[in-house]
Amino acid sequence: MLRLIGNVIWLLLGGIEAAIGWAIAGLILFIPIVTIPFGIQALKIARYTLWPFGSKLVSAVDSPLHGIAAIIGNILWIPFGLILAVVHLTAALLTAITIIGLPFAWAHLKLAGVSLVPFGFRVVDADSYAAGEAAHAVDRLG
What we know:
This protein is mainly alpha-helical.
């Protein structure tokens, strides 16, 4: 119940706008065929941004080859990531003004980190993660 309340408040305090920003970035990245993998990743993060409480970002790097691909993707992502990170950092500062806003500021800070390096992460259900279903995944954001 608390997650539902947190997610509803999140939506009212800018979560919808943040998710729309990620979705627009993802859709724009679908225009050139070469950047479709970037668009797919942006849409995954848009879904997480829309409903962050109850989900967890975990490492998706299962092999060295996938790790190299994630590094290359993250390097190419830097121009988009810097813009999105600044937006999330600004939103974190604005929501941290009140005590009630601190959990939302923390969510924005996590999203700022993912904005800089989106490849190599996947979104999992927090309950499944806690139950050990994603025990092989390592949480890189805390």
